[in-house]
């Protein structure tokens, strides 16, 4: 008998050692996948029944369950679940006769409690809400209304001047404009705070917000693309609920305090941050604007346990002067994306053993990766079971031709394990792609068809990725006409059009270049000056300062006599991107954006060295 017991124990030990050696992540994968499947089962139940519990429904449930628990802390103000429930009810009461179920309203607001109160209030009326990027202006801002069909605009008091020049056209189109003020002196702009304060806090009938299909749109979140103007990504209740489960999947609980310094018009802060807080019944500390110098002070003051980040945010923190109490905090987890390996390691060395949880996924995309293991440098983790549920592939990509490589039969080709390829995600009932509002053409541009067999369809992420032998997925680069800088996607076509308005510029080609020590790519433009004109650095400086948000302004200018084109007359940017902005290796005149002189000045070798070394900030 004892020999049998000994043999059994020896077998179990051998199996354990074999598992540790051959499948080191098995149990952690199994635990994480179990959580994902549990959450997915709830969504599947919603799909198959007429009873859909939306994010707003979940908030109402939490407000009834924990009415006195702090939900939001912002600028010294604390709102409980119950208080925000009543505030959003007041909003719904103000507009209950002005809008009907299915209408769209737009919010142009900075991070503040009433952003969320308005969002929830209009959702309680069955409306879809469009989150407008607070950096966009004039033509781009006007475009946002036409593509999502918004009939109301709610503007924060601090952003009213941003819509000053388009107010006449909005009013001509019958779009009502409301400002978060107690009284308004501008003709056609209605005050809102006084109306909210006078309204009843009683809830409107729940039937107004009832949803029978998870695929019903609830939000429009604008993302930059290759079209030159912002695109309104359609966010359905299905996508909103999936995003709200992010914190929970990583093991967060209702006792956590979540710090959100990202703008609410981004899906990370709104869908993952606020939606995730609601799902957990946790507390959110909302920062109006990220401050590297105040970050750890805020975390200590509010006992923050989880914070949201983008890679740039962590780099800014690492660049702050060293302090004695840097590890004196309760933060145990960071959730975000775009964290570079060197910044990741430096962040952990300085600020302690914080679990950094990378999430990969675009606002409009149908695929998400989560690095639940915490391997430095990976954006996600896959395995055999994950691949059964989520159909994605990495295919060979021709950087010069700017298109996937296809074989003689016209089908895409898989890359080998470890090789870099274009990430594609299969579009099917389980992973639908809802596209963009207002343009079927824009939606179709993100779809690749006949990828592996005739009739199939895949969402084109536009990202080059690699998957290693251990199933970790790493981001390599972006393709196409969009690059990322300061945590924002920059549409090169839009910047090109803005530069083309300058009288001495004949043609421009905008692209992103890598700057050592910085996340993403900085804007650079190759420019042809009109024969009868000369380059005017001050005029160009004033123009881009007025017309473009800070992250989209080209930091470097390269003067050329001609621009390289492809056979289909598309601008060829591959060689430009590869050559960068080093004056030692580029014979063309180079200029850089200098705020101290308020002009584009010649880019010399010494200036280049100061940028590369980090002495001169960009």
UniProtKB/TrEMBL annotation:
Domain AMP-dependent synthetase/ligase: 60-379
Cleaved signal peptide residues: 1-20
Enzyme Commission number(s) from the entry: 6.2.1.3
GO annotations of cellular component type: endoplasmic reticulum membrane; plasma membrane
Pfam family, one: AMP-binding
Major location category of this protein: membrane
Keyword Protein biosynthesis: no
Catalyses which reaction(s): a very long-chain fatty acid + ATP + CoA = a very long-chain fatty acyl-CoA + AMP + diphosphate; a long-chain fatty acid + ATP + CoA = a long-chain fatty acyl-CoA + AMP + diphosphate; tetracosanoate + ATP + CoA = tetracosanoyl-CoA + AMP + diphosphate
Broadest EC class assigned to this enzyme: ligase
Keyword Transport: yes
Annotated GO biological process: long-chain fatty acid import into cell
Localisation: Cell membrane
Entry-linked InterPro entries: AMP-bd_C, AMP-bd_C_sf, AMP-binding_CS, AMP-dep_synth/lig_dom, ANL_N_sf
Topology within the bilayer: Multi-pass membrane protein
Family to which the UniProt record says this protein belongs: Belongs to the ATP-dependent AMP-binding enzyme family.
PANTHER family found in the cross-reference section: LONG-CHAIN FATTY ACID TRANSPORT PROTEIN (PTHR43107), LONG-CHAIN FATTY ACID TRANSPORT PROTEIN 6 (PTHR43107:SF10)
Protein name per UniProt: long-chain-fatty-acid--CoA ligase
Organism: Onychostoma macrolepis
